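retry 2 of 3: previous attempt timed out while embedding zinc ion. Reduced batch size to 1 and resubmitted. Inputs unchanged:
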Amino acid sequence: MGPIGHTVISSAVAGGTWAITGSPAAAGVALGVGVLMDLDHLFDYYQRYIRGKNNRVYVLLHAWEYPLAMSLIGLFFYHPFLLAAILGHVAHVATDHIWNRLSPFAYWITFRVFKGFDSRYISPHHHVMDSYRSLPHLLPFGHRIEPWFQRRIEPWFLARIDRTSQEEAASTSSDD
Ligand SMILES: [Zn+2]
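retry 2 succeeded.
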């Protein structure tokens, strides 16, 4: 799910958090956590398009373990911000889990670590070109910039992928 969907869902969660806690600041925390945790995709993009690791899925902030750990802390120590962070995080991971249709354990970080962040186990239908092709669709009215994106930005990504797969092929053949 993209930033617009997460903003809508997280706004509803923020409203609920405000109602439960009576704290507008806690509502801000729920909204912030629910929207900003997608910033971890930047690390994946860096790995994929700059470092050439085409077959890895990290999304380090996306995991059920975090709200579970925060809930355990919450058993002993209550704070409205903690509850807000749990609700914002759970709503984000739950919607991604349903929306993105990855493998059933994809949103457990222990599973991803165990599988070495290998996309074949985490996102079997993942393709290295999916991420950047979806970029214009993440923006409001993104379809309007799509022709410009395809003309000016896509060649850069294609060149990166090409270069890194050539380097990979060269290093594999020299390993033999
Ligand atoms: Zn997400």
